[in-house]
Design a protein that fits this description.
227 residues, mainly alpha, 65% helix
Length: 227
């Protein structure tokens, strides 16, 4: 495989990987200079850039965004198994709710020769592989939520000590209004984004996009079947 073909075949993933790295790097730089300004205002020496990147302050900000994004996709993946929205290309057709048959899912005896080996297997391997996307997305959500809560409790403890107050325990921080205010701010925006994408895609089109129905497809059509 030539380099040009490799880039073409993986362009979408590489595009978003590049955007992610640029945004994460920009966040790190901007966050560092913000902290330098805050330290100067309080007459304190700023930490170096590497120390800031591994600090609870930066880790909390990153994990806070990650957990909301992976929660969004975990819920969407799970919900679209059982729930439908007529007319949306983000949904199966009404009547197709559920896990579908082995023939529809090309598993077991219905698996083609080049199917993943675990799709051909029986028992727990097929079950795990058949739910692997939701398992991984959900696990990343739980892990990033845990990192956010642990890092946030450290930051809250440092701020409490600076004001002469006792540092909260992890459980106290997780139960605090501050934690859930920050958390739910992110969650509600993710739910809004998914909901509007599902609804807008019923009536609006983007020619050539895999996330849109063909421009001339009727509004009521949820998915265009190959004939």
């Amino acid at each position: 495989m030539t380099m040009r073909r490799m880039l073409r075949d993986n362009a979408l993933g590489l595009f978003f990987l590049l955007l992610f790295l640029l945004a994460l790097g920009g966040q790190a730089v901007a966050g560092y200079f913000r902290q330098v300004e805050e330290m100067a205002e309080h007459g304190r020496a700023a930490v170096d850039f590497l120390s800031f990147v591994v600090s609870p302050d930066f880790v909390v900000d990153v994990a806070e965004n990650w957990q909301s994004e992976f929660l969004q996709f975990s819920l969407f993946i799970g919900a679209t198994v059982w729930l439908v929205q007529r007319g949306s290309p983000e949904s199966k057709k009404p009547g197709d709710e559920g896990l579908e048959s082995d023939a529809d899912q090309l598993v077991g005896e219905h698996a083609p020769a080049d199917a993943p080996s675990w799709a051909k297997a029986d028992g727990w391997r097929r079950t795990v592989y058949g739910n692997s996307l939701l398992i991984v997305m959900g696990s990343v959500f739980v892990l990033s939520w845990l990192i956010q809560s642990l890092g946030g409790s450290i930051v809250a403890g440092e701020e409490a000590v600076m004001h002469g107050m006792p540092a909260p325990t992890w459980l106290e921080y997780v139960a605090s209004a501050d934690f859930w205010n920050r958390t739910l701010q992110n969650w509600q925006s993710e739910f809004l984004a998914v909901g509007t994408m599902v609804a807008f895609s019923i009536y609006l089109r983007q020619r050539g996009s895999a996330e849109s129905k063909p421009v001339g497809a009727p509004h009521r059509v949820s998915a265009v079947e190959s004939e």
